[in-house]
Amino acid sequence: MTRPIYYKSFRSRKFEDFSPPKNSLSEVISKDSHIILDIGFGTGDSTIFLNKMFPGHLVCGIEAYKPGIKILDKRDIPVEYGDAVEIIEKLEAETISQIYLLFPDPWQKNKHRKRRLLNDYSFEIINRLLIKGGLFHFTTDNINYAFEARDVIRKLSSKKIDFSKHRGSRPITKYEMKGLKKRNFIFDLLYFKS
Ligand SMILES: C[S@@+](CC[C@H](N)C(=O)[O-])C[C@H]1O[C@@H](n2cnc3c(N)ncnc32)[C@H](O)[C@@H]1O
After folding, report:
1. 3-class SS string, 93-140
2. Domain annotation for the chain: domains and CATH numbers
3. 47-99, pLDDT tens digit by residue?
4. Residue 68 CA to ligand 1 centre (angstroms)
């Protein structure tokens, strides 16, 4: 299993002089609370939506894009800045009810695919973090990534999961709108841990 390679995009590097809050999700997440985690939330619209939709849950986010961190921090939504893989590696097992990975960067070129956030390494961690019955929701408009993600989940969970006919409770995001404008198909994978 190979750890996804963290690539700091130009979009992120532009904000070098902004210091993100030094929050640590490990301090917020515990077995006593109902946690929802939005990984790679961009400007945070999806996280804000989830926060409204699930008032009984503690909605948290991870992002490498500083302006997004700033937006959610102002709203008192717990966030941690940095590489999502490095952050989730440190979280306690079986503490999270729902994990969303919506429109992760698709890294289309073959030579860049090792940067994809979802692979067997990260899915194993995600699966470990979920409570029994917990949901992992992955969405992309990139057909190659969609099939790769489906196969990773199938292989590691031994479940014959397939693309969902509905988008469940996830919000519609900016990157989804971009994909739809290009007439791309949207693929949703909903995995429930047994
Ligand atoms: C294509 S955008 C999608 C944003 C949002 N989920 C949406 O659907 O509108 C991908 C986001 O993932 C973030 N990202 C990429 N790699 C990351 C990593 N290793 N750790 C944390 N965030 C990451 C990027 O900064 C970017 O904001």
Report:
1. CCCEEEEEEECCCCCCCHHHHHHCCCCHHHHHHHHHHEEEEEEEEEEE
2. 10-192 (3.40.50.150)
3. 999 999 999 999 999 999 999 999 999 999 999 999 999 999 999 999 999 99
4. 10
127 lines ligand 1 (CB under 6 A): no
Tokens standing for residue 70: 């700033």
Amino acid 157: pLDDT: 94
Q: Is 174 close to ligand 1, i.e. is its CB under 6 Å away?
A: yes
Neighbours of 10 (CB within 10 A): 6
Pick out the chain residues at pLDDT < 50: none
Name the 3-class secondary structure at 63. strand
Give yes or no for a contact between 38 and 47, defined as CB atoms under 8 angstroms apart: yes
CB 61 less than 6 A from any atom of ligand 1: no
5 alpha carbon to ligand 1 midpoint, in Å?
Answer: 14
Note whether 124 and 172 are within 8 A (CB).
Answer: no
- Strands, sheet with 130-140, edge to edge from the N-terminal-most edge strand: 79-81, 58-63, 35-39, 96-102, 130-140, 187-192
Q: pTM of the full predicted structure?
A: 0.96
The finding on whether 29 has its CB within 6 A of some atom of ligand 1 is no
Mutating to test ligand 1, I would choose from 48, 60, 65, 81 the residue with most ligand atoms within 8 A of its C-beta, which is 65
